[in-house]
Write the structure tokens for this entry.
Amino acid sequence: MRMLLIGGTRFVGRAMAEAAVAAGHDVTVLHRGRTNPADMAGVEHLTADRDQDLSVLSGREYDATVDVCAYVPRQVDALADALGGRGGHSVLVSTVSVYTDADAPGLTEESPLVEPPPPTVEEVTGETYGGLKVLCERAATAAYGEEHLTIVRPTYVVGPEDYTYRFPYWVGRIAAGGDVLAPGPAASPVQLVDARDMGAWTTELAASRTAGVYNGIGTELPFGFRDMLDAVAATVAPPGTSLTWVDGRWLADQGVGAQDLPLWSEGGDEWVLAASNARALATGLRPRPFADTVTDTLQWLRRGAAASAPDTALTAEREAQLLEAWGAR
């Protein structure tokens, strides 16, 4: 099968490209050329800026197209125009952030969606991200039709090559040992999916032309912050490591936010991170053991990835200060 990936050289897209090559597909990756890994064997690279000019796709034809990086509906429309019906079955990677937050776990693909911003809004922020993805989904449905479209709504994607360093922060921190600040509430929902599992499953959906909407979630319900950190600790923590759970609202009062402690809900419960993955499992999503994801992420960090991690996360000094203040309160 001839498969086109829009954005496929980093993390999620790369995992999809590698899975498609492994499955024997003829893979073309369209990207801006900022990252063009020489080690991506068996992949054709096309360089273009989707916001400027997609004429490089003129005359080309594919059996399936996977759009990994559409954030505003204009991008969806431009790709559909450039392909002119020659893209085959379409897959749009969306997000669970399209859902309106609920007051209980178990969101499904039919749950209510957030209200999108006005059509003139294109700035992607924490407030507009989900709504803009809703508009992208609508644009894709209008362009391709429901019978020729697959929409994948992933939760937090994790694993090696995760340049966001959200999950790698916790793997690296717990692997370093000592007294680890764990932000509460411990039962606050969080869901994860390994990029490699999502990549293999998504390319299978594209190859089989399986239409519909699917939550891309690898962890079962219930799964909370304690479950995540305990699983990481059981896999990589050296002897003597301890997790000290600190009240989330107290942390927020100290000025600590999700930029300091990645994946943390800042003391509340986000039920969009407690959605059902039953439909995904029924269509072939096969999550690997979580310990394998943790181990592989640590190996990636130790191969040198940690040196390029952003410096926005909590420093060791600040963590120690907070733990001391929490203990002395």
